Amino acid sequence: PAAPAALRSLPPPVAVGVLHATRPLHTTQQHLAPLPPLPEKGGEVRHGLIPEEFFQFLYPKTGVTGPYMLGTGLLLYFLSKEIYVVNHETVAAACILSVIIYGVKKYGASVAAFADKLNEEKVANALAMKNAAIKDLETAIEEEKKEQWRLEGRSYLFDAKRNNIAMLLETNYRERLMMVYNEVKKRLDYQVAMQALRRQKEQDHMIHWVEKNVVQSITPQQQKESIAKCILDLKALSKSAQAAV
Amino acid sequence: MNLSFFDQFTSPCLLGVPLILLSTLFPALLIPSPNNRWITNRLTTLQLWAFHLITKQLMSPLNKKGHKWAIILTSLMVFLLMINLLGLLPYTFTPTTQLSMNMALAFPLWLATLLTGLRNQPSISLGHLLPEGTPTPLIPALILIETTSLLIRPLALGVRLTANLTAGHLLIQLISTATTALLHITPMVSALTMMILLLLTILEVAVAMIQAYVFVLLLSLYLQENI
Question: Which of these, A54, B1, B20, B156, has the minimum number of CB atoms within 10 Å of its CB?
Answer without folding.
Answer: B1
